[in-house]
Design a protein that fits this description.
Jelly Rolls; mainly beta; 3 helices; 4-stranded antiparallel β-sheet
């Protein structure tokens, strides 16, 4: 995530109108979130608009996914039984914290300025993995009547090891959350 002090210094040096006559203490931290619920495997959401107050500094964008729990019928059903012997579930394997390898996002400004020009980008590659948020590299200062459009894609796919057909109704949906870490102007008066 971009350090607030560095973002402020660059805006002051560039004489950005949103910092004219203001101090860093005139801003406060705020996190906006968007949630894309029950996004089925292989599907892409529609674009969702995230608005910000004019003069907001977006210092970091990150995301995570909640994975479904999948029951292994070959391990939990008795021979010919209709009820599971055990209610233990397994999570779909992910290689990254926050399951970022399981989904992709596409980000665009409302004025058609694309941040991910080649379409949805895998969240692990875009946001980074581990404790550090790597996107964006520089702060985004939001102009009046501007926002970010976000589109999410569930990248899950599966194949049964046995080669048998998958059971009907398995959607492997994800709940994807995108978080925008900001500094926003404090209300005056």
């Amino acid at each position: 995530m971009v350090r607030w002090e560095a973002a402020w210094a660059r805006a002051v040096q560039a004489q950005h109108p949103f910092v004219s006559g203001k101090r860093p203490a005139d801003f406060r931290p705020l996190v906006y979130t968007q949630q894309f619920a029950a996004l089925a495997a292989g599907s892409t959401s529609g674009s969702s608009l995230q608005t910000f107050p004019a003069g907001a500094f977006v210092l970091g964008i990150d995301g995570s996914a909640i994975c479904p729990k999948v029951m292994k019928p070959d391990q939990y059903y008795a021979d010919g039984g209709t009820a599971p012997l055990d209610s233990t579930f397994d999570r779909i394997p992910s290689c990254t914290p926050g399951n970022k390898d399981l989904f992709s996002v596409n980000l665009t400004y409302t004025q058609n300025e694309v941040l991910t020009p080649n379409g949805p980008c895998n969240a692990a590659a875009l946001f980074g993995v581990g404790d550090a948020t790597q996107f964006p590299v520089r702060e985004i200062i939001v102009d009046p009547s501007q926002g970010l459009l976000c589109q999410a894609r569930n990248d899950l796919s599966f194949q049964l090891v046995s080669g048998a057909a998958a059971a009907t109704g398995i959607l492997l949906s994800l709940v994807i959350t995108v978080a925008y870490h900001c500094m926003v102007p404090r209300a005056i008066g």
